[in-house]
Description:
The structure holds 2 protein chains of 2 kinds. Chain A is about 35% helix and about 25% strand. By secondary structure, chain A is of the alpha/beta class. Chain A has a single domain, classed as Rossmann fold (3-Layer(aba) Sandwich), CATH 3.40.50. The longest helix of chain A has 17 residues, at about 180-195. Chain B starts with a helix and ends with a helix. Chain B has a single domain, classed as ABC transporter involved in vitamin B12 uptake, BtuC (Orthogonal Bundle). In chain B, strands 1-2 form a two-stranded antiparallel ribbon. The chains are: A alpha/beta, B mainly alpha. The interface between A and B is medium-sized, with 39 and 25 residues.
Amino acid sequence: MTEPLMEVQHLYKAFGRVITAEDINLRFHRGVITSIIGPNGAGKSTFINMMTGSIPPDSGRIMFEGKDITSLPIHKRVRLGVCRSFQVVDVFPELTVFENVEIPILAAQRRAWKMFGLVTNERSVHEEVMEILTKVGLDANADLLANALSHGDQRLLEVAIALAARPKLLFLDEPTAGMNPIERKRILQGIRELSQEKKTTFVIVEHDMDIVFALSERIIVLHHGEVISDGTSEQTRTNDRVREVYLGEEVDL
Amino acid sequence: MRKAFVITLCILSLAGLILLGLYGTRFALYLATRIMILSIFAMGYNILFGKTGLLSFGHGAFYAVGAYGMALFSLHINPHPLACIVAGLCLAFIFSLIIGFFCVRHTEIYFAMLTLAFGMMVFSLIWNLRDITGGDDGLVGISRAPIELGLFSIPIAKANQFYFLVVFFFVLSIAVIYVINNSPFGLVLSGIRENDRRIEFAGLPLRKFRLAAFVISGVFAGLAGSLSALLESNTDPFSAHWSHSAEPILVSLIGGIQTFTGPLIGSVIFVWLREIIERFTQNWMLWFGLILLLIIMGFRGGVVGVLSRIHRIILGSDTQSQRIA
């Protein structure tokens, strides 16, 4: 087995008496599309927040490419290659679609500190922006303000901004929420293609079980901060504890 | 077409400034000089306020630090005007770096209150360190020595001579601020205003960018302050007072905080209106407040914002014009 991209060791987190992560041990390998599912309050969001640096764990270690990143700030993790998208659209509303994607690319190309020189002259940045916009299908809307986009397009932009940071490991928090079936298909196709390129490894939190089972090569089930199942979709379907947890919600597994 | 229009406007304005310098009365020159100094102050300030979205109530302090730094250097070390201005800028840089370091850890009202507190600390330092700063009298007798440039020297003692020195710094400041606003760095600052959390997830150190914006605006405040010390030949402790820190905010609001030329137009309106009102009444603040109320309530997006919107409706042109204005 090769070295994992990210390794989580004995992660523990509690908010008061509510335990949202209890001794989580996970490894994420390159190129494996992984989904994290679980009922509301299972600790999925907290998990992403701890991985990407918004919330520090109470104890445990997070290793990325063999480096301990447990106490690194958000922007340094992004630079190393750990990024995320948000469940609620969280773009730069009064900037154009183009500029939204341009900011993380300026950062990735180390041009963000350049003060004396017009941003319109940054040719290599512009090429990369258009590449990403074409990939997610927003190239025709490049000059629109982000808040003028439809909700589905804003979700696409959300993912595009995350991709623009050139992540090696990308956490997508409900990427298809509020999308119509066409947009959904496009984003899923995009994720598959990007995953096959092996530059970006995806970890997806999703509620829609159809998507989870269609897309993922590995499914992790969280419940009350504990990993209760970790395996292929077939293994997840037949896991007794998972059935037990989801029984009350009548989800057809 | 648009570009040609903007370039023509720039050339005409510059020609106007030069003609005013050659043929204007002393009083007109004095007003124009004050307008330009306030413009430098406000346009620099707007990098922090309009661009980055941080409201500071303490930039009067950097204006005063620039003025006192300039004056102290002139009185004790060397009266060369350029050297004095550089000294003022350096001191403003150091102060804004130190004060900014603490302020940018917070945002919104906490940031605003911290800048207010630091600003008042600088004010009381100037007020109380009588031996160095002259206390409530300020520093007096700052000479406008000629600018020695090796082979020749440029006199700036007369009002019209000094006017051209200010025009030089005014044009230079506009050019530098324009480039900064439209640079990659400027785009990041806009991003901070729009969504600071996302800036971190773009892989950028948020606080360092905030601090940079703070220091840049502080240095422009320092430049404005040192030019004002040269203009008045003395320094005023009240330039560090929070009421003076409010001036660039008002000026930016009048002109339009989301526009490049807003603070400039706002400065013209501010100085000119005040001058007119003061001729008729002692209570200029009351009347000025009323007019300000009308402008801010009636012109959403400031005077420049409204004008460029009208301009766009007439021409039916694209969204670009809003950004260039």
